[in-house]
Each structure stands twice: as structure tokens, then as C-alpha cells.
Amino acid sequence: MPNSLQSYNPHKIKLVFHGYDLKIEEPNKSIALNQYADSLFTSFSIDSPKFEDKKGVFIFTVDGTVVYVGMTNDSLKKVIMRTYGIIIPRKLHKDGQLTACRLSAFLNKNHNKKIELWFIECDDKEKIKQIKNELIDEYKPEINKR
Fold first, then answer.
1. 23 pairs with which residues across the strands?
2. Share of the chain above pLDDT 70, in %
3. How far apart are the first and last CA of the chain?
């Protein structure tokens, strides 16, 4: 974990990877797809019952480098499982979930490195957004770049 991230007292969340080099196909060939549609993806979930239903900021690191900062105002488990942990054809659409595709493809390419998920628990929506923005400003994560 990067040193300055420690001031937020993040908790390490256990990631469980279910597969790598997954190719997802959109059966309807007439639908416009995003630039990650031809990528290979990974599938993952979390195993951390203590934090699954918590709100806050989550941070993916690869070999200790912050690569993505996200937030959830619902539950960590829902956002990881429904948004990032599995890529379905709908996410490949031009108006689909580009960031989820980008992160999954990036993690797949780096699956032989040390991938970690950190979580900063917080119940205040404004504070969650503030922490997320502070971390993005500080670390300039590759996946958060527009």
C-alpha cells in the first residue's frame, strides 16, 4: 500500500479471481461497441464479510501502485460484483460501462502481478466523494484518467 494512503486507515479486502483471458461477445452485431470490446477480461469478487455492506472509497493497486479509485454509496459488494467483477455484453456497448471494461482489461493484463483492493469505510456521501477526489488528485491513477 502506498505510504500516504495509510493516513486514511484503509482495510485490505480479499479479492477472489475466477478467471483470466475471458473473451466477451455481443451477439447482436449491429450494436456499436466501446474500444474495449475486443479486450480480454478477468472475473473477480470479494471475500470480506465485515465490509461487504459498507459504503466508502475503494482503491485497486497493482504492485503497490494505485491504478483505480472508486466509490460506493451503496455497498462494496454490490459495486464490485455488479459493476466491476464481471463483464457482460451490455457493458461492451458504446454507452455501456467503459470504466468497468477498462479496469477489468487492465487487471487481466496484469494478473501475474500483485493486485490488491483497499477500502476506506465512510458513511457520509460528501466525505466519500471528497476522499475519492483527493486520492485521484494525489495518485493520478491510470484507470481514472479520462
1. 40
2. 97
3. 24
